Fold this protein.
Amino acid sequence: MPYRNASYYMLGVIAVILIGFWPSYFAAGTQVPWQFHAHGMAASLWVLMVTAQSWTAQRKAQLPLHRAVGMASLLLFPFLIGGLAAITSLQSKNWVAGEPLHLLYGPGFMLGTMVAMAAYVTVYYRALKYRRKVWVHAGYMLSTPLILFESPFSRAASFVFPPFHVNGPAEFYKVMASIEWSEVLVLIFIAGIWWRVGERAKPFLVTAGFVVVEMLAMGFASDFAFVKQFDTFMGHLPSAIIVLTGFAIGAATSWAGWQAGKRPVAPVQAAPQPA
């Protein structure tokens, strides 16, 4: 099976998530907005699901469990996209409310999260469509944690590396710097996979393309008036509409991907007619 050390890679991802989000989410409990819980719980379950998939794929006796966990992902994916939609709604409402960090970078955050949603939809659809091609399927599934890896890693970097410490609004520029450097590290990691396995790493290149778009969106989108206007429009929409739209997109992706990956039905040959 491909990517035999993927389980260790996923454990590393989990460690970064725990470090990055411990102060602002895991240790905060009920003090965080419900949108954080909608995203946090779904995203955490997704990472655990990919970890279980990577572990069971390497053990022939566990392949039935691998398939069962894969089937469960069909139900989890709508909640993953719905949770990201909830974060998008919160980001836009913070922009409208004039929250200092979002007043500076809010439109970029909003558009970057939307790009991440598009990346998840594309990558998961293709993982389902090509689920019978092990290298392709594994590559797409293992690339999903990289789509928003900048979020926990940039937060962890702000604790660990002094150049990224933020001591007040005057140093908010360091937030964007840590995000962009985190995205660069993701691209370097994907380049390493490509160097190691060559053409079989194409699924990771798809994710790399979305990561580049994320970088540009978060770094420059806040400079454009039409993006600010769209962020304002989103901020005035009821959160329920945005979340349910995300959930519907996720459900449609699960259904469409599963259908696309079904084995083609062989045409039934008509019985020859007697002469």
Observations:
- Residues 63-97 form the longest helix (35 residues).
